[in-house]
């Protein structure tokens, strides 16, 4: 997949080909339709935060469509609209959209 990557060596993001993710146990994969840029993303790019580890694909406020469902997931199915607002280390769950 294509993603904008921040490696920490430059203040610029680079478009890169990165491996397609796969959902693990208890996870879903969302095809992102829109992603917000919040102040936390800017703090990361401005090197004002030590986390997340770099390189990183910024953007943790997303909405899209579920494309894969990992083992043990209930309440989500392929084709559902879903969103997430999570950063590395948090335990927030994806939200299902009506």
Automatic annotation (TrEMBL):
Alcohol dehydrogenase-like N-terminal domain location is 25-83
Which superkingdom, per the lineage?
A: Bacteria
Q: Which InterPro entries match?
A: ADH-like_N, ADH_Zn_CS, GroES-like_sf, Zn_alcohol_dh
Q: Please give the Gene Ontology molecular function terms for this protein.
A: oxidoreductase activity; zinc ion binding
Matching entries from Pfam families are given as: ADH_N (PF08240)
Which SUPFAM superfamilies does UniProt cross-reference here?
Answer: GroES-like
Which UniProt keywords are present, listed alphabetically? Metal-binding, Oxidoreductase, Zinc
Indicate yes or no for the key word Metal-binding. yes
What is the name of the protein in this document?
Alcohol dehydrogenase GroES domain protein
- The organism is Paraburkholderia graminis (strain ATCC 700544 / DSM 17151 / LMG 18924 / NCIMB 13744 / C4D1M)
């Amino acid at each position: 997949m294509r993603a904008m990557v921040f490696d920490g060596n430059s203040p610029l993001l680079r478009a890169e080909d990165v491996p397609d993710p796969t959902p693990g146990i208890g996870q879903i994969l969302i095809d992102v339709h829109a992603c917000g840029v919040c102040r936390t993303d800017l703090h990361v790019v401005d090197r004002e935060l030590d986390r997340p580890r770099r390189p990183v694909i910024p953007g943790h406020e997303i909405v899209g469509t579920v494309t894969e469902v990992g083992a043990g997931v209930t309440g989500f199915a392929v084709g559902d609209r879903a969103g997430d607002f999570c950063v590395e280390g948090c335990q927030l769950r994806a939200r299902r959209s009506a």
